[in-house]
Design a protein that fits this description.
- It holds the Pfam family Whib.
- It comes from Streptomyces iconiensis.
- Acts as a transcriptional regulator. Probably redox-responsive. The apo- but not holo-form probably binds DNA.
- It is found in: Cytoplasm.
- Its cofactor is [4Fe-4S] cluster.
- This protein has four helices and no strands.
- By secondary structure, it is mainly α.
- The protein has a domain of about 80 residues.
- The relative contact order is 0.18.
- The N terminus is likely disordered.
C-alpha cells in the first residue's frame, strides 16, 4: 500500500523494511513504472545555488509526483538502502531520508543501559 504524501517522518521510520521481490520478472525493473520517468529530472534534483523558497516549492512539486506513483515504496527503499545522497526519492528529500535512516538505526541498535545487571 502506498503511503500518503502527508505521512510524517516518524511513520516512514517505523515502517519495517520490506524487501520486495525484484520486478524484473514482471514488465521490467521497478523504476520502469516510476511516474517521474515522464517528468523533468530537474524537479527532483536541486540546481546549484537554488534559493530556499524555490527549493521548497520544487520539493513539494516533486513529492506530489511521488504521491501518485505506483512504485513509491520501492523507490523509497532503494534510496534508503543505497543510500541516495541527493534529490527527492520515494517522496522524501535527502534530509528526510537521513532522519529515517537515523531512526531505523536507533530502533535496531540495542540500548547499552538495558543490559540486565548481575547481582
Amino acid at each position: 500500500m502506498l503511503q500518503p504524501p502527508h505521512q510524517t517522518l516518524q511513520a516512514a521510520a517505523t515502517v519495517p523494511v520490506q524487501r520486495t521481490p525484484a520486478r524484473e520478472d514482471q514488465a521490467g525493473p521497478w523504476h520502469a513504472d516510476a511516474v517521474c520517468r515522464r517528468d523533468e529530472a530537474g524537479l527532483f534534483f536541486a540546481p546549484s545555488k537554488e534559493p530556499t523558497a524555490a527549493r521548497l516549492s520544487r520539493e513539494q512539486a516533486a513529492k506530489r509526483v511521488c504521491a501518485r506513483c505506483p512504485v513509491l515504496v520501492e523507490c523509497r527503499e532503494h534510496a534508503l538502502l543505497m543510500p541516495e545522497p541527493y534529490g527527492v526519492w520515494g517522496g522524501l528529500t535527502a534530509a528526510e531520508r537521513r532522519v529515517v535512516l537515523s531512526r531505523r538505526r536507533r530502533a535496531t541498535t540495542p540500548d547499552p543501559t538495558d543490559v540486565p545487571r548481575i547481582a
